[in-house]
């Protein structure tokens, strides 16, 4: 790239990273819409979170899926029996962390807490287990697209 673009921070790496993220986010959106997922936007949000993470997207990908499943299930369970208020929400996040530790899930806690938050705090007109299953599918689709793009489209090493 030219000297002026490099001075502006427009490196080859930035171009490829931005292009890959944009294409992956669009693919996630199109897939989620094609599947008629009710809140399709969680798929591209998840894709972006994974691709722009400071850790390697391929590092322990199973933890991302397990965390999403744990947060969705726990969120649905709590929403079935309790009204969501700050005490119930805080207790849910605490239980997510404790379960993640006991089950030795490591970084899955982050995804469990995020998914529990989505299920528990956003008002929905459907039963909690339906909402939780939708969130699991939407978020998992986003994670899967990010992982696939990471494997198929490797970024060039920085110069």
Structural overview:
With 159 residues, the chain is mostly helical. It has one domain. The protein is built from seven helices and no strands. α3 crosses α7 (128-152), α4 (61-81) runs parallel beside α6 and α4 runs antiparallel to α7 (128-152). The protein is elongated. The model has no long low-confidence stretch (mean pLDDT 90).
Helical stretch count?
7
User: Radius of gyration over alpha carbons?
Assistant: 18 Å
SSE series: HHHHHHH
Overall tally of domains: 1
User: What is the percentage of strand-forming residues?
Assistant: under 5%
Give the integer mean of the pLDDT values.
90
Which overall shape is indicated by the principal axes computed on the Cα atoms? elongated
Summarize the structure.
The protein has 159 residues and is mostly helical. The chain has one domain. Helices cover 72% and strands 0% of the residues.
């Amino acid at each position: 790239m030219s000297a002026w673009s490099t001075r502006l921070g427009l490196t080859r790496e930035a171009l490829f990273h931005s292009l890959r993220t944009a294409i992956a986010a669009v693919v996630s959106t199109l897939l989620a819409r094609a599947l008629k997922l009710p809140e399709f936007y969680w798929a591209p949000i998840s894709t972006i979170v994974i691709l722009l993470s400071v850790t390697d997207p391929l590092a322990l990908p199973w933890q991302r899926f397990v965390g999403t499943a744990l947060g969705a299930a726990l969120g649905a369970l709590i929403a079935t029996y309790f009204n969501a208020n700050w005490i119930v929400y805080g207790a849910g996040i605490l239980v997510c962390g404790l379960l993640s530790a006991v089950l030795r899930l490591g970084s899955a806690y982050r995804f469990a807490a995020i998914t529990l938050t989505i299920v528990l705090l956003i008002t929905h007109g459907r039963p909690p287990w339906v909402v939780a299953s939708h969130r699991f599918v939407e978020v998992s689709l986003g994670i899967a697209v990010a992982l696939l793009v990471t494997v198929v489209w490797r970024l060039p090493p920085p110069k």
